[in-house]
Write a structure and sequence with these properties.
Strand content: 25-35%
Number of strands: 35
Number of helices: 10
Radius of gyration: 30 Å
Helix content: 10-25%
Shape: globular
Distance between the termini: 86 Å
């Protein structure tokens, strides 16, 4: 039967891939594209916007969610949630960059009920329809820009792209798509992907609207942040209608340290289907209610229900965890060692392949493991401060879970984390401790911020001139990353590193291979050996490419050595060494040599233009520190001039840059430290931050003079 269905599907696609497919797409969307909507009649933009790349004259998005009974394959009768999504966009192109960007439009033709069409409006009013027949299939969905993807897509998409020929500056593109989706039913509820919609877009917007139509079993959660408009609600027969309107928003200007989810006007919303109103475990209210706020009491009560469900799942997982505990013989070890072993055991079992263990499952399993030793721990929730403030939580997916134990906070492990790690996205957050027992209410807690001295990176360079080619600098580098800086660097530095087979050694566990037969162990060992043999070839090439992003020319890359991967519970620093040769760091002028030693402070920010003014606080994610030690062996016979200019100190409450250079026994030693003292710098203190940011950049551009 499956084979028969596949053949029919292929034949149907072959029949509709010609002109009939595109005629169908036009017809399906024609009513929406051609409706008499005054927002889509404009051809002018506000004064002052004419020097931008493009302006969105109007954008309208409609989402309809409806549940009805339908007969499916083999006569199965079930209730499904059907989704109709439509979006129309009208854009004026004001420079060649936008002309190039919109010279191809993308659309989804994966369902026969989908629709797409558009037109180009010339400055003289001439209207040129899109030539859909010239569209070609897109092989990889990842190649489709997010601008052209639906909000509610749930798989089955088949994208095409159509060329828009002879586009010119001043043209207006007006296009629309229509997508239909069958969400199916999965138990008693479906939570659709939340939409986070900043009012300010990459292009300035004259007018933008959302319209949402829901049946009686579908709910809308929404919250508007930083002055964004609210959804307005009304009814039409059996349906609830919600509308959101906004306009005259200037484009987002590219700016460092901007958190658009927390700082800009934004509306976020989520559609939830539930066959039960005001469900205890869902963040929804009564039928027809627009849920736009959760009090801490509501939040913790619903989180408690979610945790009870996670605890039921955890209970079924405990047998496997306890099997490992017996193998490790840790049931009676000291309490501190037992806690450590439980954390790293869960990291081993649940985070190595998935990347990060589910927060709720971790809290439930860890709490049950600790309870076996009568070690009390409390469960808490917060939110990622990269996405939302805890007080603005409105979706279940925004919850981040942790355990509070003896005043310390323990978060779900990742494949590289440690029990003492506090994720960047949690530092400084307000959190809520879930109530335990009747009559007990929630408690608030403050998650600490990790000090900059703990988030330190040390760069050590030992540099000399090549004896045969003095235009090259030979470099021996050793770098050490601690805490959050280690986590940031891990993705790059642990690429191609196969640490899973020996993970048990990092916490005193037992080798999983013991559970395999002799033949299985031999086969696995062969696979591991083959992978590592290939990785030894790939890793240096990969690291060389990474190095080229920092330095202008890497002439030769000789060696990479991972000294310590930072995953061992007693060796948490990430340390690596490199040997390489650089060109373009030395300049000759007669008998003098200029050496760009300060240039080893790579990627220092150069802020100019709009970047030097600040409308919003600067979000730096976390406090951190970078320490540089640069040692250079001076060639025989040369004198060193200009070192005093490298001694400076710029410091205030936001951060600092301090440097010192000296010459001893023919070796120049430069020490430089750049410190971010605050995770968030208030906009009024931005000029103070510029002081040491500028100092670090200017230092990195200097050169040392060597003269015979």
């Amino acid at each position: 039967l499956a084979f028969f269905i596949t053949i029919c599907s292929l034949q149907l696609h072959a029949q509709t891939a010609g002109r009939s497919l595109f005629e169908n797409l036009r017809e399906n969307v024609s009513g929406f594209l051609n409706e008499n909507d005054p927002d889509f009649s404009g051809t002018t933009i506000p004064a002052g916007w004419n020097k931008q790349s493009a302006v969105i004259l109007a954008q309208k998005t409609f989402m309809g969610f409806d549940q009805r009974t339908s007969f499916k394959l083999l006569g199965a009768n079930k209730k499904n949630v059907y989704i109709l999504e439509k979006e129309r966009r009208r854009i004026m192109l004001l420079d060649q960059s936008s002309v190039g960007l919109f010279s191809e439009l993308y659309f989804d033709a994966g369902d026969p009920d989908n629709g797409f069409d558009g037109k180009v409006i010339k400055p003289d009013g001439q209207v040129i329809p899109l030539e859909l027949e010239k569209a070609v299939a897109v092989e990889e969905e990842n190649d489709v820009p997010g601008l052209f993807k639906s909000y509610t897509g749930r798989g089955g998409s088949r994208y095409y792209k159509v060329p828009v020929n002879n586009l010119e500056v001043g043209d207006i593109i007006d296009y629309a798509y229509l997508v239909k989706n069958d969400a199916g039913t999965y138990g008693n509820y479906i939570e659709f992907q939340p939409v986070y919609y900043p009012c300010h877009r990459s292009y300035s917007v004259v007018r933008q609207r959302f319209e949402v139509k829901l049946d009686k079993n579908t709910f809308l959660n929404s919250r508007s942040i930083n002055g964004a408009p609210e959804f307005k609600e009304s009814t039409s027969g059996e349906y609830n209608l919600y509308s959101w309107e906004d306009g005259n928003r200037e484009r987002i200007k590219n700016q460092y340290f901007l958190n658009q989810y927390l700082q800009l006007p934004l509306v976020k919303f989520q559609i939830v289907y539930s066959n039960t109103e005001n469900a205890k475990n869902l963040f929804i209210g009564t039928r027809g209610e627009l849920k736009n706020k959760l009090t801490p009491d509501e939040l913790t009560k619903k989180a408690s229900v979610m945790f009870a469900q996670a605890s039921g799942i955890a209970k079924n997982e405990m047998e496997a965890a306890n099997y490992h505990i017996r193998k490790m013989d840790i049931a009676d070890v000291k309490e501190e060692n037992y806690i450590l072993s439980c954390y790293y055991l869960l990291r081993h079992l649940y985070a190595l392949d998935e990347g990060r263990m589910s927060g709720a499952l971790f809290a439930a399993m860890m709490k049950q493991l600790l309870a076996q030793r009568r070690i009390g721990a409390r469960v808490g929730v917060t939110a990622s401060n990269q996405l939302t403030r805890p007080e603005d939580i409105i979706f279940r997916s925004e919850l981040e879970w942790f355990l509070e134990l003896n005043g310390k906070f323990i978060f779900a492990p990742t494949s590289i984390s440690h029990i003492n790690d506090i994720p960047v996205w949690a530092q400084g957050n307000k959190a809520f401790i879930l109530p335990e027992g009747k009559g007990i209410t929630f408690q608030e807690a403050d998650i600490p911020v990790v000090a900059f001295s703990e988030n330190a990176t040390r760069y050590a360079y030992d540099i000399s001139m090549d004896a045969t080619n003095k235009e090259l600098l030979l470099v021996k580098a050793k770098h050490t990353h601690k805490n959050n800086n280690r986590i940031v660097q891990s993705d790059k530095l642990l690429r191609y590193e196969l640490y899973q087979p020996e993970d048990w050694q990092t916490y005193g566990g037992w080798d999983d291979k013991e559970a395999l037969s002799t033949a299985q162990q031999e086969s696995l060992s062969e696979q591991i050996a083959r992978y590592r043999s290939e990785a030894r070839k790939l890793k240096p090439r990969f690291m060389e490419e990474q190095l080229k992003e920092e330095f202008e020319e890497v002439v030769k890359y000789d060696r990479f050595r991972l000294v310590q991967d930072g995953r061992h519970m007693r060796k948490q620093d990430l340390i690596y060494e490199e040997d390489y040769a650089l060109g373009e760091m030395v300049q000759f002028a007669g008998k003098s040599i200029l050496v760009k030693l300060p240039g080893y402070l790579t990627n220092q920010l150069k802020l100019s233009g709009d970047e030097r003014t600040r409308l919003y606080d600067a979000y730096l994610n976390n406090q951190k520190q970078y320490i540089y030690q640069i040692k250079f062996t001076v060639p025989a016979g040369y004198k060193v001039l200009g070192l005093s200019g490298l001694n400076q100190k710029v410091e205030n409450e936001t951060g600092s840059f301090v440097s010192e250079a000296k010459l001893e026994n023919g070796i120049i030693t430069i020490m430089a430290t750049k410190t971010y003292k605050q995770a968030i710098v208030a906009k009024q203190d931005w000029p103070k931050m510029l002081e040491w940011i500028d100092a670090a950049y200017n230092f990195s551009q200097q050169k040392i003079l060597l003269r015979l």
